[in-house]
Amino acid sequence: MHGGDIYSDDCPRGRKLTDFSANSNPYGPPEGVEAVLREALGHARRYPDTAYRDLKKHILDYHGLSGTPVILGNGASEIINSAFRGLKKVVLLGPAYSEYEKSALDQGVAISWVMMKEAAGEGYSSFSFPLEEALTALKGAEGILVAHPNNPDGNVLGPEAMEALVDFARTQGKRLVVDETFFDYAGDQVTSFTEYSSQEMDLVVIRAITKFYGLPGVRFGYGLVSDPATCETMRAPQLPWNINSFAETFAKICLADRDYQRRMAGLNAAERARFGEALRTLPMIRRVYHSEGNYLLVELRDWQGIRLKEKLLALGYLIRSCHDYRGLGPGHVRLAVKRPEDNRGLVEALKTLV
Ligand SMILES: Cc1ncc(COP(=O)(O)O)c(C=O)c1O
Asked: Which among 19, 77, 219, 334 is the best mutation to test ligand 1's pocket, defined by most ligand atoms within 8 Å of the CB?
């Protein structure tokens, strides 16, 4: 099950619905993206470069890298789907985005589960990365996938855990896959795993323009794949010209717009703090989890997430119940951080439900 399923039958038709279940940027894509459609139409009249040299150069320049192999895909999803290729067993952490498990199972890759550690207090709580358990499990597997920030809670790894994980993967020859689909939202103090992309190791860092640039319909993601042999294995089943010229043009515009990137990260951080504080004052909410993403995981006090979802649908709000995430309970829900007026509206709606 995914957020953003506004097409299902239980969503009311012909009435305004504010979608807090999907985590795409509520401010929409950078200016200029629409004007550029005309330019992209020009490009669409010929085949793209099969090697996508210019697009890959844009990506590497954006990350301050050169020479790191890049794989391009139909959203982060396609890269996630190829990241375990060639492996027999991987370590996954819970709770996490369900596609990691699906991708492993689809390819017959066995899973060793490690659960995040919850530091749960009243008010703000957080999940933390269980380094020792993860490394122990990784000894018996060939790879591990970490989401940074993690979905649904927004947790990131601290510098020591990152260093230890990278060091272990490099020295033990393990594949380290990092889903950084939501990384652009993280604060300046959080380090990206792309810092390690030029090292000699089996590291795959996954990014996309889907969430941060508010373009889930464009379907563009990429992986920075430090090991050329892994990149070849991941690319092998891809069809030629798998990225259309519109996605290529959109991706270049997004990655070049530093001003948009700064503004959006700032807006989200400020609103995440305000929204989190407002939620924390509601008696129905037991705790709000610390997040570096554009969403907040919340645990309800006496409510089940499914029932709250139904009640809120009737009031014009769609939320994500997290009962189906491994390691979470029926009272967990995830709320996207949206524009201030929408967040205030949801808080007011929650106040009417007792
Ligand atoms: C953590 C995470 N990674 C990847 C994806 C998929 O991203 P894309 O739409 O770019 O395929 C999602 C979608 O919800 C997600 O939550």
From this structure: 77
In order of their start, the domains of the chain are 18-29+259-351 (3.90.1150.10), 36-257 (3.40.640.10)
The CB of 77 under 6 Å from ligand 1? The reply is yes
354 CA to centre of ligand 1 in angstroms: 33
Q: Are 218 and 209 in contact (CB under 8 A)?
A: yes
Confidence of residue 182 (pLDDT cuts 50, 70, 90): very high
Residue 5: exposed, middle, or buried by beta-carbon count in 10 A (0-12, 13-18, 19+)? middle
Contact 195, 43 (CB under 8 A): no
pTM here is 0.94
Task: Collect all residues with Cβ–Cβ distance below 8 Å to 200 and sequence separation of at least 6.
Answer: 170, 226, 227
Q: What is the pLDDT of residues 112-165, one digit of tens each?
A: 999 999 987 666 799 999 999 999 999 999 999 999 999 999 999 999 999 999
Ligand 1 pocket check for 181: Cβ under 6 Å: yes
Cβ–ligand 1 contact at 4 (below 6 Å) = no
